[in-house]
Amino acid sequence: MNKRWVILMIFGCLAITLTACSGSSSVVVEEKEVATSPSEDDQGQTVAQEINAAGIFAERCANCHGADRSGSRGPALLPERLDKDQAVYAATITNGSGSMPAWGSRLSAEEINALVEFILSPPQ
Ligand code: HEC
Question: Which atom of ligand 1 lies at the shortest distance from residue 89's CA?
Answer without folding.
Answer: 29
